[in-house]
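Next up, a specimen:

>
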Amino acid sequence: MNGRASYADWIAVDWGTSRLRVWAMGADGSVRAKAESDDGMGGLSRDGFEPALLHLIEPWLGGTPMLVLACGMVGSRQGWAEMPYLSVPAKPGDLEPRPVKAQDPRLRLFILPGLSQSSPADVMRGEETQVGGFLAKEPDFDGILCLPGTHTKWVHISAAEIVSFQTYMTGEMFALLAGQSVLRHSVAQDGEAPEIFVEAVGDIMSRPERLAQRLFALRAESILNGQDGVAARARLSGYLIGAELAGSRPYWLGQNVVVAGSAPLAQLYGDALAAQGLTTRVTDASPLTLAGLCQAAARILERTT
């Protein structure tokens, strides 16, 4: 092994189902470089994780072991190494990364564990790091943090702890219905119709038991009445998010709610909640994972320096 100096002091890794994101970090928390690829957990075999990681971070490594801290689906049963779930209530800032053996001696790999809830049964991997990053910036927050995405999380936070959480498969249902069901012939691939979306949210929240009927009506409306694809897309999104809000109402009603996600999805949730009379704050979730990883890495570095 040569003595070449490394470009980073440590490396942060966010490994999702479909994407791999990495950052070359300075000891002061600065980002020196970043990279990403489509090598998500869903497309890798167990022996494919290390080569996929090295493909991105090789230029940042030196001749001595480098701290690599990862979160997300890399710690799932189908990931690089399965990390046990820790039960809520739990403080994200106290979660201990677990060491994992790598073949390349330059990698000193740690993976953060996920969180679980026994009743109702629920799990999260990666979102706990986002919550940790959020609390690092807002340590006194008390309320509900909504993390919209493929699997939206509603997280109850109090005294810097995740008290409980709920997961809704709304994003995945939207993708399946819009892309693989009979509705694919009626729903546009993109486009926005905010007024139609809000109307659909209110419609299904008042009668959530009609969801299945309302979904098929999207197809019928396009055939019989010429409903355009953008309007159908807005209604589909509104019906599904409205059903989610109806189910999660005990979580958000009367609470301090922050929606943290990527635009325009986070804004859709904000608009839907606003139409129900709830004032929410919508913020960008993209810095949160890295902030949470920095918090966990600081604890490791303190013990080893």
